Amino acid sequence: MEKTALIALGGNLPWNGQLPRQTIIEAVEAVLQAFGGPIVTSKLYRTPAFPAGSGPDYVNAATLVTLRHNARAEEVLVILHEIESRFGRERLQRWGMRSLDLDLLAMGDLVQPDLATWQHWHDLPPAEQIRNTPPGLILPHPRLQDRAFVLVPLADVAPDWRHPVLGLTVLQMRDALPKVELDQVVALDSDGMS
């Protein structure tokens, strides 16, 4: 049985002499090579740094990857971290600037490690989110429903994916966000960032 993984890509620092846009394009290719596809990729988007004022604008995208083997979520995450490292990612600061960020958002309808743990991290107040890091992988990503920079690209590749806890589709979660947040996620043209 095939599993799918939803992955968010982002970066706002140059790496190896190239702009974040090119890094994201090459990272998508690295994801394809690592997992063997098929893979569906969103458009590229320019988004303000998160949290606001924390650095240059980001380039964001999302992919839907069909996993050909019965990979565990932790195995997928290890591969994503290896790809990040190849593109100069250093994990120095939570929500800090980076050359590449690959977030495993979800794997099918998996809730991991369990509903109570997911609910705890979902309900964590914003000030605590910055200070605290989960001890392990939480799926679906407990913040994905709050972030336009995740949901807008994700709607390109998995508009009908339904959150296994919230019961909402990607489109419903995206459309529930304030318009001002959605308007800050701007599709890049073929010339890249201005």
From TrEMBL:
The 7,8-dihydro-6-hydroxymethylpterin-pyrophosphokinase domain covers which part of the protein?
7-159
Quote the pathway field: Cofactor biosynthesis; tetrahydrofolate biosynthesis; 2-amino-4-hydroxy-6-hydroxymethyl-7,8-dihydropteridine diphosphate from 7,8-dihydroneopterin triphosphate: step 4/4
Q: Which CDD domains match?
A: HPPK (cd00483)
User: Is Kinase among this UniProt entry's keywords?
Assistant: yes
Enzyme Commission (EC) number: 2.7.6.3
For the protein in the UniProt heading, the enzyme class is: transferase
Named from the GO MF annotations, one term is: ATP binding
Q: Name one GO biological process term.
A: folic acid biosynthetic process
UniProtKB keywords: ATP-binding, Folate biosynthesis, Kinase, Nucleotide-binding, Transferase
For whether the record's keyword set contains Kinase, the answer is yes
Family matches, as NCBIfam families: folK (TIGR01498)
Q: What this chain does, per the record?
A: Catalyzes the transfer of pyrophosphate from adenosine triphosphate (ATP) to 6-hydroxymethyl-7,8-dihydropterin, an enzymatic step in folate biosynthesis pathway.
Tell me its family. Answer: Belongs to the HPPK family.
Question: Mind telling me what this protein is named?
Answer: 2-amino-4-hydroxy-6-hydroxymethyldihydropteridine pyrophosphokinase
Q: Which organism encodes this protein?
A: Fuscibacter oryzae
